[in-house]
Design goal:
This protein has 228 residues and is of the alpha/beta class. It is 28% helix and 29% strand. The protein has seven helices and eleven strands. The chain is globular, with a radius of gyration of 17 Å. The chain starts with a strand and ends with a strand.
Length: 228
């Protein structure tokens, strides 16, 4: 079964949508569109009646809403609906919420228990860079974290601050799919692109496609390839 990403033009690159119950890493430099992509993914989920969760470790719900306020794809309405929960793991309320699901096994066990107990369909986790605040040994614990997420019956987008698509990390190897956002600065200005580097169970070509921002959020031009 596949679900729509909610991003215009993107699903054309992946045979009509994301395979469900899989873990996808969304990578790229700051300002390249990762958060907007994930926000559109959550909005589409709410529109489809899916139970969704947005997990963050660095900004409040009000800040995220403000960041997305310039778009008209319905993010605020989705976040205010009964279909979407928001969890900030560094706030006291967020810590209390997650601690209800056990005190043993650290973040991994508690977050997975939260996801499974709420029978969630879509989850966004922002981001791998901030997991170091929860893990004493990042290199060892990230593997267990990703492996546990893959065992859930949830479609999960994990934001990664990777800036080099050829510099693979644990999350790239372990994820079912890797989506990379590019920024190219040249004499004509900024060119943006999106590249599906990996997508198990899906025929992809790995070419970079032109990407733009509009009032409706991100828009992928599937028929336009970018020459980097």
């Amino acid at each position: 079964m596949r679900v729509s990403s909610g991003v215009s033009g993107f699903d054309e690159l992946i045979e009509g949508g994301l395979l469900t119950e899989r873990l996808y890493v969304v990578s790229g430099p700051p300002g390249s569109g990762k958060t907007t992509f994930c926000s559109q993914f959550i909005t589409q989920g709410a529109r489809d009646g899916d139970d969704c969760l947005y997990v963050t470790m660095h900004e409040t719900k009000a800040e995220l809403l403000r960041d997305m306020s310039g778009y008209d794809f319905g993010f605020k309405r989705a976040m205010q609906s009964d279909n979407v929960d928001f969890l900030n793991l560094v706030t006291e309320s967020g810590k209390r919420t997650i601690t209800q699901f056990g005190t043993d096994g650290g973040l991994t066990n508690r977050l997975v228990a939260f996801i499974e107990s709420n029978d969630l369909d879509r989850v966004v986790i922002d981001s791998t860079m901030l997991l170091q605040h929860f893990f004493s040994d990042m290199s060892d614990e990230i593997t267990g974290f990703l492996s546990a997420l893959k065992q859930t019956d949830t479609t999960i987008l994990l934001i990664s601050e990777m800036t080099d698509p050829t510099s693979y990390s644990d999350e790239h190897y372990l994820a079912h799919g890797v989506i990379f956002f590019h920024n190219f600065l040249d004499n004509s200005g900024m060119t943006r692109g999106v590249q599906v580097i990996k997508m198990r169970g899906t025929a992809i070509d790995c070419d970079i496609r032109e990407l733009g921002f509009s009032d409706q959020g991100l828009r992928v031009h599937a028929d336009r390839k970018v020459q980097s």
